[in-house]
Amino acid sequence: MRRPMVAGNWKMHGTRASVAELIEGLGKQVLPSDVDIVVMPPSLFINQVVVGLEGQAVAVGAQDAAIQAGQGALTGEIASTQLLDAGCSFVLVGHSERRQLIGEQDEVLNRKFAAIQESGLTPVLCIGETLEQREAGQTLAVVGQQLDSIIDAFGIDAFANAVIAYEPVWAIGTGLTASPQQAQEVHAAIRAQLAEKNAEVAQGVRLLYGGSVKSANAVELFGMPDIDGGLIGGASLNADEFGAICRAAGN
């Protein structure tokens, strides 16, 4: 049985004051004990969040990591070993904002994925299609190619210690959400693609849905057989809303 997971991606939001307020709000939430809960603040605030959430069953993750695991001459970057040292457990890789706005290609994302795992952290691989690709009927081909990039580079066993987040690009921050049936269709295809290589890995890997998830739609989305939780954007900046989404995953 896969353990549900809800991860909050705070993106480029927060000040020391607002982060302190959010931490305080999370501390007041009744969070389910049968769900893995993660928050991913901007790197600047990781230490503040780790300290602030001490003693609570909330893990801390990072939104990005460098292409190499260890420290070195990469100005402006943060090594995954440094993130581990800071108290992180998970790292996002391949979020559509980095693929599209920063221009990160599969070769770079593969190196980041490997560096994260090498450091003992768990990568959360983000995959998803644009609106144009969905309207052209290319959703499964696009998602499949993004998945194959990792499989071809490292083998199917790489997903024995990884999480996959399906985020349709057209649903991120737009208020649009894939219907539970649309999301389930893609999640089922992802699991089937993995199962062709290794059924045990496919059954064990957690598949999260991301894209305008709110407490109002979380129960129905998380009720789908192949959706194991969510990668939450804007709603994770509101402690009450995020708490409600986490409780939905525990139902």
Overview features:
globular, 14% strand, alpha/beta, 11 helices, TIM Barrel
What is the topological layout?
Layout: E1 5-9, H1 16-27, E2 36-40, H2 46-52, E3 59-62, H3 80-86, E4 90-93, H4 96-102, H5 106-118, E5 122-127, H6 131-135, H7 139-154, E6 163-166, H8 180-195, H9 199-204, E7 206-209, H10 215-222, E8 229-232, H11 239-249
Parallel strand pairs: 1-2, 1-8, 2-3, 3-4, 4-5, 5-6, 6-7
Structure characterization notes:
By secondary structure, this protein is of the alpha/beta class. The chain is 43% helix and 14% strand. The chain has helices spanning 16-27, 46-52, 80-86, 96-102, 106-118, 131-135, 139-154, 180-195, 199-204, 215-222, 239-249; strands spanning 5-9, 36-40, 59-62, 90-93, 122-127, 163-166, 206-209, 229-232. Strand 1 (5-9), helix 1 (16-27) and strand 2 form a beta-alpha-beta unit. Helix 1 packs across helix 11 (239-249), helix 5 (106-118) packs across helix 7 and helix 10 (215-222) packs parallel to helix 11.
